[in-house]
């Protein structure tokens, strides 16, 4: 069942430790088959060293496990809300990558200070509000997804393919699982650069809007001219 | 004698350089056999490159060497006090991992700023008081253990599986040697994230208590639902 | 066509990920054959894992592609302006190496705080002004080159073999592609050291001029005595 | 000639890139044969990838090259002054390791904030004064050695086996070349920990003297009890 998607999601998961984004099991990737209305996600708490493509768990869009020998990631309900609210996306990633997590813990959106950020994220990378006690105690993972969706009111999720969950850490997404991981790597690099930028200049303002737009549109949209296509 | 435990303690020791927590010989792991009242610990000052399972030293609960070709770790008396005071624990680790050591040198407990911390440590990771001159000059390593025990008055050592010894560095523990090492890795990651968090926001307060509790109890206690069990 | 130069430029490109200066495709190296008036540059958006010497693209000094299966780097017009303005140089590098990029985002020239810097860069490593909206919207990459040239008015580009483009990142250069990469590595190391230097002393001034000159001239010019020549 | 010493000095040199202390050729190690009054040092500017034991250069205590196909390190005159002034030492190391260099550039001695430092260095790791213009222009490398010796007036060089040269970087030493490299690694680790310690607590004072002494004397002197001897 969904063998090709399981393979892609497996490979995307394995990129996380390879790229230095996860310690132990602190991350998970999923990918969706929109036609069948099913997504595939890492099992909960399984070590990356032991992970195999066939261990991926298949879940439907009501959050029920459809196939798999393991329990799906404890963050499955968050992935589900993102798939429901953002029909453009095909893959979702969660990590505790250290610098992005520091911004999330600090409760700060990441301002766009330069072109590395602007090449992939249009404007700030937003930080959500805190969940309420009620939201934490009743449906925590689902509410984590809903507060991300609330944060993206008025934003295009493919133009801003990631978010910081306050006191928690980053989620990123993309057209598919591989692109979602790519954006998780970009986010960590940008988080690191921008932390150091503020250490070097304590009166930073964002890069001029016209530079941000130029770089984003070099890589995205009908007039993109970066790369080979 | 205690061949299986020696192997486990050896493997837990070897995780320390593999995970980047030790330079040269700056760390040691022990594990206990509660039934026999004996624990097994790294020999003092032996290079990790040369270490073998049979080099592990067996010590009784009066601190006497029972078996081994080498002297036990110079921190043996600290491990012993922890085993005596915390009957729930089965393994102890000491390192000088750089960021946790920086918090210890700064004399600061690590506040819980997010879920990475809350998944493994319930509340602050405490820093001990300074030892007095008398405590340092007479039974330094034993007193290091006793001041840790004093710091944990009213705390559950399995809910807060680690401590910072002021001006020195971290000790962690767990159900067994492997889990104690796992907690040493978590502590270093959390120390790093929380240092950067304060650099990004100089008015931090801890994460809301209900978020801390939610994450700790997702992974611990009767209602835990993370992982496969 | 230009097989030897393609090989050199390919090898210089491959040094970038090996030295930890690039994530994904965020960097490019070129090298020039001054006699033929042609330069060779990395293709745009091609992964370093897949790159081969024959993928290098040949470009003339009007910016036209002369040979190659791929589009040249999107930064080709910047490289071109540097070759036109600085006849002494034979290779150019662009990266988003994280610490140099942080200085660029902070809009700060890197002061010379010590001999590591002075061994390779005479005086500050300058940061350009921001490009205007007009300069960004009409010929962005060419104007990036022109603003670097403007910044170097009165400077010897072989004595200061690199620059920070504001809100963007570093360019470096040298006698050939390999030396340009060497200078990119030096720049990142110096950027890192000097960030930490300011964290340790918030009232820094540059190293005495006579120390800067001594070190630069130990390695450069007729009285150099470092190394074997 | 001095084959065994050349091998030891070669191996000590090769530890520098392996331990992450040098970029390119930014470091050198020497070792001395006190009976013959000769020391062996890395050749100047030779890549670590190409270095061989037989490339080591033999120098006498007047600074004359006695044997070798290459020029000795440009820092040879500094090593020589240290051997002349400190008869207890058998090996000398110079690096530009980034964090120790940042302290040197900041012009700050490293205070003893904890036991990692106290295990190997008794008290502050001192930073020299700046060299005068005269000292730089006439016999720079020799004067670098002399200003280190001046800084150590009243200090035991085996109790404080390293120094920061202002605006330049660290020198360390030890009983032999291998121990000098060991101390260079310790210095970089301590430099890193202590930078972070000040970031966590901007009102730091040194660790209590009795803790510093306890740790130093656990490892040094007649009552040492760390390790196997």
From TrEMBL, chains A, B, C, D:
Its EC number is 5.1.3.4. GO terms for molecular function: aldehyde-lyase activity; L-ribulose-phosphate 4-epimerase activity; metal ion binding. GO terms for biological process: arabinose catabolic process. The keyword Isomerase applies. GO terms for cellular component: cytosol. Its cofactor is Zn(2+). Keywords: Arabinose catabolism, Carbohydrate metabolism, Isomerase, Metal-binding, Zinc. Belongs to the aldolase class II family. AraD/FucA subfamily. Residues 7-195 form the Class II aldolase/adducin N-terminal domain. This is L-ribulose-5-phosphate 4-epimerase. Coiled coil: none annotated. Involved in the degradation of L-arabinose. Catalyzes the interconversion of L-ribulose 5-phosphate (LRu5P) and D-xylulose 5-phosphate (D-Xu5P) via a retroaldol/aldol mechanism (carbon-carbon bond cleavage analogous to a class II aldolase reaction). It catalyses: L-ribulose 5-phosphate = D-xylulose 5-phosphate. Pathway: Carbohydrate degradation; L-arabinose degradation via L-ribulose; D-xylulose 5-phosphate from L-arabinose (bacterial route): step 3/3.
């Amino acid at each position: 069942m969904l063998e090709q998607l399981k393979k892609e999601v497996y490979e995307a998961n394995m990129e996380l430790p390879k790229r230095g984004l996860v310690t132990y099991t602190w991350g998970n990737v999923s990918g969706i088959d929109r036609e069948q209305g099913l997504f595939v996600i890492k099992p909960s708490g399984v070590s990356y060293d032991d992970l195999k493509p066939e261990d991926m768990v298949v879940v439907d869009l009501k959050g029920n496990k459809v196939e798999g020998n393991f329990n799906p990631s404890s963050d499955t309900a968050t992935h589900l809300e993102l798939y429901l609210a953002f029909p453009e996306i095909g893959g979702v990633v969660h990590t505790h990558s250290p610098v992005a997590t520091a911004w999330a813990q600090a409760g700060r959106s990441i301002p766009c200070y330069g072109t590395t950020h602007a090449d992939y994220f249009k404007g700030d990378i937003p930080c959500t509000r805190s969940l309420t006690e009620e939201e934490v105690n009743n449906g925590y993972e689902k509410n984590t997804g809903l507060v991300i969706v609330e944060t993206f009111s008025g934003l295009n999720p493919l133009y801003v393919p990631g978010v910081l969950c306050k006191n928690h850490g980053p989620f990123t997404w993309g057209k598919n699982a591989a692109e979602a991981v790519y954006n998780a790597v970009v986010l960590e690099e940008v988080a690191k650069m921008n932390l150091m930028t503020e250490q070097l200049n304590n009166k930073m303002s964002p890069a001029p809007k016209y530079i941000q737009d130029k770089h984003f549109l070099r890589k995205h949209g009908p007039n993109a001219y970066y790369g080979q296509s």
